[in-house]
Design goal:
It is built from 13 helices and 9 strands. It has about 325 residues and is an alpha/beta fold.
Amino acid sequence: MTDTDTPVSGHQESTVEDVDDTQAVVSRVVDNVETVIVGHHREVEHILTALLGRGHILLEDVPGVGKTMLARAIAESFEGSFKRVQFTPDLLPSDVTGVNVFNQKTEVFEFRPGPVFANVVLGDEINRAPPKTQSALLEAMEETQVTVDGESHDLPEPFTVIATQNTVERDRTYELPMAELDRFMKKLHLGYPDTDQETEMLDRVVDHHPIDDLDSVATLEDLRAARETTAVVTAEESVREYVTRLAQFTRRHAELGVSPRGGLAVLRAAQGRAVLEGRDYVIPDDVQTEAQVVFPHRVRTSTDETTPRAVVENALESVRVE
């Protein structure tokens, strides 16, 4: 059973002290990131709830709004390994996963790991690479391992992919297949800053960029413990049934609705949201907040008149909490 297949449990209990400790870690990371990033508090929180829920994040927007910088700031706030992959049309799958190289001295093939072997992997402009190369991340994101020449290699734990893609130059990019989109817990959009935020951002970087002075404020053990605490946050049967009804609504009202993996993703994200709010149990409001960024990229509509986001909003308005 893979990590994605593991059911969310409400039978174990996280203590108030565990939740408080995790909330303190998240608070430190948020404050640290916001010394670099201006005006995206909501998105920073969404990324951290995804990290707590063992998910991967896709940042989509026009160039120059800080997608890569946000991913770097999150990654560098935690101790651990960080690798960046610049996706280009000529990038090969082996450039991501690694390759077996023949050692003439020992006369055996040795595996040389690629940049995917890191605790946080930034896939920059992932949609610039062809589907064959994009698919190199599928096994890694699903099973926390890669297979090269028939041999599997475990990835570091914890392991998270933060990918970016731009929404322009469609003629020079490749659309991510649904199988890959579904492996991203959340798809976030940053948008342009307002006037005050942009002015503050310019003031911060006019001398030197604050990312250069950013220090880690949490260890990998902090993140592992936070994930363990999040995993046992209580999700009562009524909440789980609510998630199921939301997913089923999207299936009835779209050409392609939310998958079971998407239902599990929103529940795990809701657990992260509960911890962020200092609770050891999930409430429907947590599900509703997270569904807005977990569900839409998993939905496909048959007409231009109805958007995936509209389907999800309609589900949140129509499906009752029981």
